Amino acid sequence: APKSTLPYPPIHDKSKVVVLSDWSNGTITITDTNDYLTDNLGFGFEKRRFASSSRSLNLEILAGRMSFRDAFREELESVNLPFDDCIKLLKQNIKIDPTFKEFYEWCKAHDVPLVIVSSGMEPIIRAVFENTVG
Question: GO biological process annotations for this chain's record (predicted)?
Fold first, then answer.
């Protein structure tokens, strides 16, 4: 497996519990940030998701004809807006689960590490958090 060029998160070996949470699509955010960009600025919902499309990337992945990584790259490459403009748009339109902020603050107050698992979209996560959690 290729080595990551990103630093690994701190190891929480002294904690009895560590919370791992997915980022998007109903876990922390209501809407998946990458899907939002693809559907609204890229090639759209139909090509990403539905069989009625000439080539649905989700179905290509499920059928084993395309890797998630290649499909994800194709989705993001279909977005033709500068990254900073994408961040602004996401900050305006992506909402977090209404109970997440309280959960996040509970974790902090009880010294429970919260690790967010995502597909390497740290700048997007930080931007949305700035706007919603503080």
Answer: L-serine biosynthetic process
